[in-house]
Amino acid sequence: MSSNSGIQIPSRLPLLLTHEGVLLPGSTMRISVETARNMHLVKNRLLKGTSLKSTIIGVIPNTRDPEYDTEDLPTLHSIGTAGLAVQVVGSNWPKPHYTLLITGLCRFRVAQLLKEGPFPVAEVEQLDKLEQYTSPDEMSEAAGPDGELGELSQRFYQAAVQLVGMLDMSVPVVAKLRRLLDSLPRETLPDVLASMIHTSNKEKLQVLDAVSLEERFKKTLPLLTRQIEGLKLLQKTRKPRLDDDKRVKAFACFPAITFSLDEEGDDEDGDDTAVLERKVKGANMPEPALRVCLKELKRLKKMPQSMPEYALTRNYLDLMVELPWSKSTTDCLDIHAARVLLDSDHYAMEKLKRRVLEYLAVRQLKSTLKGPILCFVGPPGVGKTSVGRSIARTLGREFHRIALGGVCDQSDIRGHRRTYVGSMPGRIINGLKTVGVNNPVFLLDEVDKLGKSLQGDPASALLEVLDPEQNHSFTDHYLNVAFDLSQVLFIATANSTATIPPALLDRMEVLQVQGYTQEEKVEIAHRHLIPHQLEQHGLTPQQLQIPQDTTQDIISKYEHKHSHIHRGCFTHARSVAGQREEGSDYRSKGKRGRRAEEPDGVSADMAAPPDMPIVIDHIALKDILGPHVFEMEVSERLTLPGVAVGLAWTPLGGEIMFVEASRMEGEGQLTLTGQLGDVMKESAHLAMSWLRSNAKTYQLTNLVGGSDPLEGTDIHLHFPAGAVTKDGPSAGVTMVTVLASLFSGRLVRSDVAMTGEITLRGLVLPVGGIKDKVLAAHRAGVKCVIIPKRNEKDLEEIPANVRKELDFVTASNLDEVLNAAFDGGFPGMSNPLTLPHIVSKL
Length: 842
Description:
It comes from Oncorhynchus tshawytscha (Chinook salmon). By secondary structure, this protein is an alpha/beta fold.
């Protein structure tokens, strides 16, 4: 390396091969790095280097066609530019790549290629020397007034001044370029201006190869003259618009600016920006949002389209224009019409319908009422989502569903900040953009299944959305301006409130959507499910009929969902299609259904004409769906002491639960099985302690006749369906009854089911899910249900037809529970025939 070099570069440089252009000394260029060879250079040299020297690389123009580029190192161009990597940006979309911002320092010649992999490294010879770079006055004196180099330098300088003078000096980057012409050494002007003006890569390559300063001036001066003539022609053709600042496109990062001579493309870009400006002003957005948009629009006008930030700013402005700042729909406040529509869409659900009608009634009195935050809680399949859609139809509003199950990033709610690559608004703002109005019905589905991760807590982000006192100024991170959500009607759905954070639950009005009775399920099936499935399978009621008795069997003896109706329709759709094609109907063989007028005992050969409907009876049902899934076995399971029926609540609804106990000789240990939670285990120990303390009162003995039931005895308490996790306090009364039956040797009544929490003093405390539990007992054929005394108020929610078929015993202590659970009362009580409070056939 020369000792008098002004720009000192290492004698060995890693080489970056680029197809994207020619980097000249004094210019700055963005280079996309995608090839494996260049990726290795960035990772191993630029990203791992710690000194300024490690950021200097050699940039070599690659003249090979990139379509035919291979893994072999191409023939290197002999002249390159040493550049300083001032910025490295990485991205994984659409594939892993880096973008480098390189500033050219000086020329070099490749003396020897030292290695090819994983990236090329060469020994280089620096070409631009310090003694060439002098001030304008010094150069004129050195070259002499008549020197050819001095004359070329002066001509080039005058042409550069003329070119800049033809531009709009009000543009800051043009004014800065004019000042630099007087301050930069004349020798640097050819490289700097050649990188700015409109030239081809081939012409820039010729300038790069011009090592001699005189040759460099000669190569660049014609390019500068051509640019001047082009601008003169452009001014003549656009005479009425001479003052238009669109004569120049200025890049934000000096000195990389490009002058565009493409008048058609320039006009198109200007017109597009003008259209966007009109849209911004006509969007009726609030004043703060309008100020932000106009500021971004002003930046966009000064920004070249090739910059990455141009697309980001344009996308932001497009979103701001499309948002419904002041667009809304008019609510339909006809209460009678709303009632008719709700009744036609859904059967039962009286509480939900009443709440919607109350909202409409209040809206009639006060038009500025903020939308309530409703939360429908109930098992899957009861119609929570479809009710939300019906509410939107009733009000005449747009409907949008946002699925929150599994969401664990708060940016899904609040959006990403625009500083991130691939940023986008949150689901709330995206939903408003989709529906196009600011007062839709938003259904936040599965709000109880929100997750939490390192990216934040989306449940906490929803606090602002669902708070009527805050959501009038909801700020999405992407928009960074407030948007009014107060007119949006939010409806959330959940299977359980246990997993919803208390702060979020407090902002919502919880409406329980509990399970249906047998009769309601039959009615829903014939009003909605069966007609829908017939239509989906291309059938008509004249081709297939499902009587109510068959529907009752499907509900009670198979899975509690409508998929079996689908299977029946599919089976007969297949047979109808087969009949049309083959002229035969395999259903006539007596296996898949009977003709409507086919009497019992008629052979397949005497089947009714094919235009008669098929009726699915209990015989055909068994052939289509197989053996019964559910067999009511309550009476069969309660044939031995130590078994009782409890009632449990699950997210899928109520269920009956058999609790079994057995005893054997041992050391007084209590064993619990059936995947029980901590609360249920504690309830079992409570039940055991209460019975031991009252053993004499109830005449309970152990295996050897002692008064302590656990003396010399081990107890095993089991809850069947061991694969299902169970927890909760409501099985306490059932455990006491089971253990009392085991120690006394008496059978528990087979038509009794019970639920309730217990205390160590024998009190029975209230529990939840009474309606679902009672419906489960009714489905199982139970005739008597024991519930806590303080749950008597919950019996009003149970349908009247179910209450008529059941006897309800409301107990306030365990004495009353045991007295009702055994025939004739339980031994040891002061008056065993005195029954507790009975609410019979309410």
